[in-house]
Amino acid sequence: MNQTKASMGYVTSKEPEISLGSEITVPCHLSPEVCAIAMQIKWFKETVCVCIYKNGCVIKGRSYKDRASLATCVLERGNVSLNLSNFSVSDVGDYYCQVISRDTTKQITVGVDGLKFINAAWSKYYQICNLHSKFYTHNKHLV
Questions:
Q1: What is the domain-level CATH number for residue 27?
Q2: What coarse category fits the chief subcellular location reported for this protein (predicted)?
Q3: At 3, is the secondary structure helix, strand, or coil?
Q4: Domain assignment of residue 143, yes or no
Q5: Which of 13, 16, 106, 141 is most buried per CB count within 10 Å?
Q6: Interatomic CA distance for residues 128 and 137, integer angstroms
């Protein structure tokens, strides 16, 4: 299969419930399922670099050094989703995933949107908030 013909999309079974401090996955998959191990994958939140995968290595942006990851074990199945730990309200917004294969670049915007509090409780030491969020997407073909 020609890797440059792959498109990108996102898959989520339902709108996720997210708690502050939890781990979230910003979903992104190549379609049809194409191995992404030899590709370059770049994730940005707006203009800030979250992480870059290149030549088998994941380089994390300064602001996300301890919180961002890619599951490199699933790149083989075209899963280029971004994992963020310690979710905070500032993580809401647009995330851009660029996948570069040879001389072709494809980009998708996956947004964490529609944030609202559905349950909030205070503890003496920390706040527990369950948040209801949804993902949206826009594809863009570059080059």
A1: 2.60.40.10
A2: membrane
A3: helix
A4: no
A5: 106
A6: 28
pLDDT score for 118: 37
Number of domains in the chain: 1
> What is the per-residue pLDDT for 13?
39
CA 81 – CA 6 distance, rounded (Å)? 16
Residue with tokens 């073909």: 141
**Which residue, 81, 72, 103, is CA-closest to 2?**
103
In a domain, 89, yes or no: yes
Sign of torsion, CA 45 48 53 59? Answer: negative
Cα distance from N-terminal residue to C-terminal residue, the chain: 20
Contact 102, 4 (CB under 8 A): yes
Tokens 């570069």 found at: 100
- What is the token pair recorded at 47? 């203009």
